[in-house]
Specification:
The protein is an alpha+beta fold. Helix content is about 55%, strand content about 15%.
Length: about 575
């Protein structure tokens, strides 16, 4: 069957060349459209339950919030481990699931069980957005020459975050910095005492007088009218006019016992950007399973829309971190490595084959096999990354092609000056090596099968690499059996003459001397090999290793955490110091 493939390729040269052209065009388009990321997402499916209970100590949060949630989440299907942390006013429970668990299934099960948990009144747990630990893809800062951090924070919370969350693939937009605006009632203790009121009475009056009420409808003149009472406050004057009690028939209003102002919530942190010590930023998180470049295209389009049409003219969004820069750096690194590898392989081939035409025929297998792999990867929606593409071994890819071209070249050189049919010689030369080439590629592919048995982070890390290499090998085998004989039939029409390679002949003579020496001393040779192997085993623990290759994005930001008992004012006074 293998021999028939070569024979059919030589008979249908035009068809083989057309299919090669289709592979080239399809591979280029697939590489441009296939998802590309710097690193694969190695995190397992997780569900995070966040519960806020303000003004309560961590011991109370642990006993009344965290423990009931943990008890209710015990036995969740496919859960591997559950961890939690209880802080002042905050409970955080993280559930980690098996690798093959659907993230939406895990969130649905957790959400169903949340309703059965017994928690204090007014405490409502929530699920964190569905994003992975490596899902941070975009950071921006708001810039304005006149507006205060509080105004910028209000724009961030009520305009920008809602806009970015509408972008397909965005899990959340988290804002940091600035102050959260509040309508505050600053009570005067002396007035409260003088009117014989309590703070709970004022709080209850504020809550009861900030709502609209429906009153049904009534008919008049052949029409009916809806009845409702308008009670929502619209400004600080409305808050000041709320009645909190009466003294001898005279209403006591909020403005009589305190002052209504616009302030901000107590600050727990501060964000600085460049020379601005009190700035406002946003962090966009990508939905788990989405592709970085697709999400970033939508985010960048939304940024342009916000800056041009939605935000006030004096407020602009300034992006200062974009994952696309890392993706571009990864792509450039891989492309540069591939180009250098192809050039080096071409130089080595010219040196050993002593024929530029033969070297070019072999070297063409490298880009074409990669393009074939890109087509298959894109069809299976497999993302390309630094590890999957950068791990391709050119020597393995072109191994069969070198054997095929070298044997064709040798057979033609032996018939120099004779009368022969070119196709018959090429077919006979290919017949000698096509079966060994096929089985050698099969053996190499079998070496990648154990990689598919890996699971967890190692499986996510190395599966794309194994798939890319396997598809490239299959593509190289197809090209070796079809395109290479066709190109040889075109480029070797005038015949070939085998040229002497003095450097290679010198290496062969030196090797023959060493080979005779080791064959005459088999015991010594085996002993030396055993010592080398033993020394290697001893040195393995001292060899360094890296789980992931290093990529310098050129992006740097620092988060400084003060002791948890320090006040914000004291931390702000310390922060500017080196």
């Amino acid at each position: 069957m293998i021999h028939r493939i070569v024979q059919a390729a030589l008979r249908q040269r035009f068809l083989v060349l057309m299919l090669t052209a289709f592979i080239t065009v399809g591979g280029v388009l697939s590489f441009q459209r296939m998802p590309v990321d710097a690193y694969p997402d190695l995190s397992p499916p997780q569900v995070e339950i966040i519960t806020q209970w303000p003004d309560h100590a961590s011991e109370e949060v642990e006993r009344l919030v965290t423990l009931p949630l943990e008890l209710q989440m015990n036995g969740v299907p496919h859960m591997v481990v559950m961890r939690s942390i209880s802080l002042y006013g905050l409970s955080d429970v993280i559930l980690t699931f098996e690798e093959d668990t659907d993230s939406y299934f895990a969130r649905q099960i957790v959400f169903q069980r949340l309703a059965q948990a017994t928690l204090p009144t007014g405490v409502t747990p929530a699920l964190s957005p569905l994003f992975s630990p490596s899902g941070l893809v975009y950071r921006y800062v708001l810039e304005s020459p006149d507006r205060s951090p509080q105004e910028l924070k209000t724009i961030e919370d009520w305009v920008i975050e809602r806009s970015y969350r509408s972008v397909h693939g965005v899990a959340d937009d988290s804002g940091f910095g600035g102050t959260v605006m509040q309508y505050q009632v600053l009570l005067d203790p002396a007035r409260i005492y003088g009117y014989h009121l309590t703070i709970p009475q004022v709080t209850a009056a504020l809550a009861a007088n900030n709502a609209n009420a429906g009153g049904g409808f009534y008919s008049q003149g052949g029409q009916f009218y809806y009845v409702r009472g308008i009670g929502l406050v619209r400004n600080t004057d409305d808050i000041g006019n709320i009645v909190v009690g009466a003294n001898k028939g005279v209403p006591i209003r909020v403005r009589d016992v305190g002052e209504v102002t616009i302030g901000h919530a107590p600050r727990l942190g501060e964000f600085g950007f460049q020379k601005n010590d009190d700035a406002v930023e946003g962090v966009i998180l990508m939905l788990r399973g989405e592709q970085t470049q697709n999400v970033l295209k939508g985010v960048e389009a939304k940024t342009e829309e916000l800056n041009r049409q939605i935000l006030p003219p004096d407020v602009k969004i300034h992006p200062y971190y974009d994952r696309s820069e890392l993706v571009a750096l990864t792509t450039d690194t891989v492309e540069a490595n591939l180009l250098r590898g192809m050039v080096l392989v071409l130089v080595v081939l010219v040196f050993f084959l002593v024929s530029f035409r033969a070297a070019v025929i072999v070297a063409l297998t490298i880009p074409l096999s990669l393009l074939f792999a890109f087509i298959v990867l894109h069809a299976h929606d497999v993302a390309a990354n630094l590890l999957s593409i950068g791990a391709i071994d050119f020597g393995i890819v072109i191994d069969g092609t070198v054997v095929m071209v070298e044997n064709i070249y040798r057979e033609l050189a032996l018939r120099e000056g004779q009368t022969y049919t070119l196709d018959e010689v090429i077919l006979a030369a290919a017949k000698d090596v096509d079966r060994p080439i096929f089985y050698s590629v099969a053996v190499i592919l079998a070496g990648y099968l154990p990689i598919y048995a890996l699971s967890g982070p190692s499986g996510k890390l190395f599966h794309p690499m194994a798939e890319t290499m396997s598809f490239a090998l299959v593509g190289a085998l197809i090209l070796t059996l079809t395109l290479i004989p066709v190109l040889a039939s075109y480029w070797f029409k005038a015949g070939v003459r085998e040229k002497p390679n003095r450097a290679f002949e010198w290496m062969k003579r030196k090797y023959a001397v060493q080979l005779d020496w080791v064959l005459d001393r088999p015991k010594t040779t085996v002993g030396i090999a055993t010592l080398i192997f033993g020394a290697t085993l001893l040195l393995v623990p001292f060899i360094g290793g890296e789980f992931m290759p290093h990529l310098d994005e050129g992006a740097l930001w620092v988060r400084a955490t003060m002791p948890y008992t320090i006040s914000f004012e004291e931390a702000s006074s310390i922060a500017p110091h080196p």
